[in-house]
Specification:
211 residues, mainly beta, eleven-stranded mixed β-sheet, three-stranded antiparallel β-sheet, 2 helices, 14 strands, ADC_dom_sf, Acetoacetate decarboxylase family protein
Amino acid sequence: MWSVTESETERTDWPASPAAPWPANVRATIWWHRARSSDFAPAGAKTLPITMCMVVDYTTSPVGPYREILASPALRRDVGRVPRMAVPFIAVDSATSVHGGRTNWHLPKVLADFEGDVLGEAGASGGEWSVRTTSRGVGPQFPMLGSIGFAQPVSGGSAVASSSLKGKARLARVEVDAKGPTLSRWMPSGTYFGLQIVSGSMRTGEARLVG
């Protein structure tokens, strides 16, 4: 499974999870910046040099509440008309969610420890890596309707899926302190422009193989 060091695990036995689609209610902070390195994008993919990251609090989901951190070193522009994330780093605090991510969408989920509030000060850590975020909302809330797509490299092509999202959001400034074997190279510490999903509902559909 395509991943960086921070998303590698020797564990293979995970509690079973439901098949997609997955509906969920979420709170999240999302941030992005110009890509620092092309070394961690999928090999051979055409990309946009934008790194996208997020910390998410799933207040409801088919496997219960859980928290998540994920990042895409670059956005793919070679799968469909809309740029999509390619996610080699993703961690959660639910073993059942690990199964769901790996089985349904080829996402290299691993277990991690989480603390704090994704809309304030939050932290995630596992093994040799850690990420701390401080999210500060800017301005009024506004209604949001959109989607987030991703395309994971797999044998024979890419596993492509999308999450639809609607809710309330506001702009944010996000301070990030990231440490890890690869994270400091492509998801460096700093202060970035971002977005808070103050409250939202989302639905992540089934993945399809695109050659």
